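Hi! If you just cloned this repository, the fastest way to understand the data is to look at a raw example. We've pasted two of them here, unedited. The first protein comes first, obviously.
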Amino acid sequence: MKALVCGLALITVQSVAAQAAEVKVFSGGGFRSVVTELAPMFERATGHKVIAIFDSNDGFERRIKQGESFDVLLIGTPTFVVLGDKIAPAPRVVVGRAGLGVAVRSGAARPDISSADALKRALLAANSVSFVGDGLSGVLFRTLIERLGIAEPMKPKLKPTETANVVKAVANGEADLAVHVMPGILAERGVDVIGPVPAEVQSYIDLTAGLSAAAPEPDAGKALITFLRSDAAVSVIRAKGW
């Protein structure tokens, strides 16, 4: 009997191992803290391994159009329209929504951004402002300063930065303010969150999960997308500011 139990256990382990896959995930940088926490949970639940790569919307658009292989895309919804049939029509789910926020270096004076006029004064008073130069949150920021009527005077103050470094630039003293999606700010150390952009000039990014039309591991990819809508995953996503 003992030998039979051990044999069955071995068969089960071998079966799980045979079904396990590496899921290659292309994720926007603003979702890094979420993916980092959720990946081990998904791996324990399914036996699959998550290989996460982080970049901007524009960066992934280039990589996918050049034929780079992946299974799941986690990115701002507009990019799915641009990529067309590179992404399977289903499954696709919106997994989060986030607005822009403003941060300063830890311990620095916090300017008033409680209204559109106050935010305008704060941006104009800063010597430099970091933002994502190649990505959707950067597009929203440029639209923001245009709506505030300060696009021209802000030009010498702008510090376009890679997604991974936009908040670090403030923490390191390279910029006075960072304007980025709130989850991206909350995930970084060395900065204080002043708050979200005022509602009257706020813009939001919807984050969608979709499957590559040429996914090497479509079943594992679908399993990950389903997992992102589970109660456990949604709890983490909300806790990270989405």
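Ok, and the second one:
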Amino acid sequence: MRWRALASMLAAMGTLAAMGTLVGAADRPEGRAFATRSVTVARHGMVAAAHPLAVLVGVETLKKGGSAVDAAIAVNAALAFMEPVACGLGGDLFAMVYDPATNKLYGLNASGRAPKALTAEKVPPAADGTVPLHTPYAWTVPGCVDGWFELHQRFGKLPMAEILAPAIAYAREGVPVPQVIAGAWARGAAVFRGKPGFAEVFLPQGRAPKEGEVFANPALARTLSLLAEKGRDAFYRGEIAAKIVAYSQANGGFFALEDFAEHRSE
């Protein structure tokens, strides 16, 4: 009886799979490849990100009454921890925001400038004549944090401390690393392993985290906590700026406190 039940179940599963293929083939527009997932449609908001927990952070921010910009900042902060292979407070930010209340489209350029002390004559060109990558000659003032606060000032609803709270908690507790991010992490480790300070944060156990392993970043949690407590000036005029400048001076960079204090988004 058990074998007969199993055979019936397998036959039913095969029939359902075939039906799914037939329905998908019949429903897809002419000329389009067969899709394994439906297009997602939502009425009250939608979040897309490279890590499922970052998506959850954005959705929960919207459910609390946050604006789309609040959710975007919350997701970006979460990805700075969860997807360090592509996001981070050391980078820049660009945004386009449509405001239905004013029927206007706003653009934000939150990219940083090169240090004042670094002139073109000081830059030794790479073999192709460009600025050499992964060197202090390519460092610019990070614009991401200022971009968060510029966007929040105009379009935010929730307090910044509440927006950053999920990223802070996850960075302290740690989260499992997904497959794709783990692969990119391993490739990045081959490039940055020898950079000062990299291994201490991003190579626990002396290597990149593998798929499913839990990674935490308490140092980033402290940085985000400072931003939640003291605002953007903690990054551009406070102790974070001082530490970045000190790191720069110790490792061949050109940053000065003035470069951070004078930074503004457009």
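That's it. A detail worth noticing about the second one: Strands lie at 93-99, 104-110, 175-176, 214-215.
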